[in-house]
Protein: NADH-dependent flavin oxidoreductase
Amino acid sequence: MNASYEKLFKHFKFVHGMEMKNRLVMGPLFTQSSHENGELSDKDMAFYRERIKDVSMVIVGPAYIEEGGKTMDGQLGIHRDYVARKLHEFTAMAKRMKVKTILRISHGGALSAEYLKVGDEAVAPSRVAVRRKGKKPKELNEPQIDHTLHAFARATERAIQAGFDGVEIEGGSGHLLQQFTSKQANHRKDTFGGTAENRLSFSIQVIRTVSKVIKNTTNRPFLLGYAMTPEEKGYGGNKVDDTMVWIDQLIEEKVDYVHLEVKSFHAKTTHHKEGEAEVVPAIIKHVNQRIPIISGGNLFTPLQVEEAIRGKLSMVTIQQALNLDPYWVEKVRRSEEPFYGKVPELEEVEAYQKVDSNEVEDLLEEL
Structure:
């Protein structure tokens, strides 16, 4: 193994004692190959079997917590007890490989509008469409908010029963929790809207609900992570300085780690108090090792991954590299060159970001 890449293979231990065999994570990939009923397919199993064997942790999902929270065809579900049975096969496979498994649990909110049954309405914090020409969702009332909290609780119970080593709450990518925290998507006048504290309150309730289930359901080490989009594009959206305040709150809630969802690890912001800065490194500097930070985004070469770890990133997501070369980790360990096609230059990545229209940009640029 190239000595300069030793940091990739150093162990990492979370506060509660769960130890990772290296710093490499296979983050979520939208395979869209689960069964129509949300059950993990044999195709999913084969895809992961080939790619996860050498990483320390795999994050699967996002898995929708109820029928009304689905955001794409072929999406994995955690909304019914029967889906946990197939997921147990997956976690058992990962355990044989000494790989920790995390299930990302999610509700799409307004993003679910086009995937509902005829006559059903999507729900969101406010009646704000998230896509151009999209249907306006129904504003969640308090009983529906309680129902959604219960759905997160049941999803967590199923994840524990299925043998996962943790859950990761989807708080970004334009999904329901980000819709609540976003100034653009949340126009409520009650305790869930208005001030930053109020807009964060639903996410805090979800975290506390999930934490309570973990405490009451299992005695084994079990991680609770929170995924978030660190900066919203478009006028008036949350910026990196807002995210830093939010992460301070997550630390108080004793979340085990924060997963920063970015297209490029080197994406820049001009909305930081210190001027132009790369988003992820700026947040890492603010956090100052008070909580583990997981991130990635367009990191294909071992040198790029090594530099991210040297920059104090706790663990690095490399699902894009593993998608291209399932043997990426093994090859790096043997000092062989992985296949990663043409690695895009930073300028190309930034140009791509300007024209690509993924879910979160639809939400935050088109409101």
Summary: The chain has one domain: 3-366. Residues 346-361, 363-367 have pLDDT under 50 and may be disordered. The chain is about 35% helix and 15% strand.
